[in-house]
Design brief:
Number of helices of chain A: 0
Distance between the termini of chain A: 38 Å
Helix content of chain A: under 10%
Shape of chain A: globular
Largest sheet of chain A: 7 strands, mixed
Helix content of chain B: under 10%
Number of strands of chain A: 11
Structural class of chain B: mainly beta
Order of helices and strands of chain B: EEEEEEEEEEE
Radius of gyration of chain B: 14 Å
Oligomer: heterodimer
Radius of gyration of chain A: 13 Å
Distance between the termini of chain B: 41 Å
């Protein structure tokens, strides 16, 4: 069966520091991969999605970036965090256009 | 642009009651619709997926229906339990080659003893 791993679960970082969140999927090949952000009291915002290695689509202009160095690995990064980057970050995967499955999320607090 | 609305935003019901959560969308050109559950501080758990050609899907005490032409879906929860307390979100995937889902803002459900 397929599983998705996302880490860390919580992270507190100072403003201006770098960020790296990692997500891996097991038990499937060539999944579509997604990064979402959920701010307090707001809905899910799609940040990036990828349909294959090295193929990244950005949905929202911001100081975040994403990379897909391997088929089942998706990384969310920032060179310098802003206070507004605080939120709950969720990685998700799907096989083509079938059901979407989420990881457990990373709670990021930028201080 | 697809818009997904969930009403009510919050709902409190006593244990044992049957309840219906609503999801409406503005563009009927969808590929499928998915219902999720989110517990506080956790990720989203997929509950049911309905393809655009289907009318309903069932899993245990949950039943989701889809009326694509009217842009509506409902999630029916039978014999609610305190463990059903969570936020329920619906999401629609468009037809065509786009991979992006549009999410509703959710209904926060509390089932009381």
């Amino acid at each position: 069966s397929q599983t998705i791993h996302q880490w860390p679960a919580t992270l507190v970082q100072p403003v201006g520091s770098p960020l790296s969140l990692e997500c891996t999927v097991e038990g499937t090949s060539n999944p579509n991969l997604y990064w979402y952000r959920q701010a307090a009291g707001r809905g899910l915002q799609l940040l990036f999605y990828s349909v294959g290695i090295g193929q990244i689509s950005s949905e929202v202009p911001q100081n975040l970036s994403a990379s897909r160095p391997q088929d089942r690995q998706f990384i969310l990064s920032s060179k310098k965090l802003l206070l507004s980057d605080s939120g709950f970050y969720l990685c998700a995967w799907s096989e083509d256009r079938v059901a979407l499955h989420f990881g457990n999320g990373t709670r990021l607090t930028v201080t | 642009k697809q818009e997904v609305t969930q009403i009510p935003a919050a709902l409190s019901v006593p244990e044992g009651e049957n309840l219906v959560l609503n999801c409406s969308f503005t563009d009927s050109a969808i590929y499928n619709l998915q219902w999720f559950r989110q517990d506080p501080g956790k990720g989203l758990t997929s509950l049911l997926l309905i393809q655009s050609s289907q009318r309903e899907q069932t899993s245990g005490r949950l039943n989701a229906s889809l009326d694509k032409s009217s842009g509506r879906s409902t999630l029916y929860i039978a014999a609610s339990q305190p463990g059903d307390s969570a936020t329920y979100l619906c999401a629609v995937r468009p037809s065509g080659t786009a991979s992006k889902l549009t999410f509703g803002t959710g209904t926060r459900l509390q089932v009381t003893l």
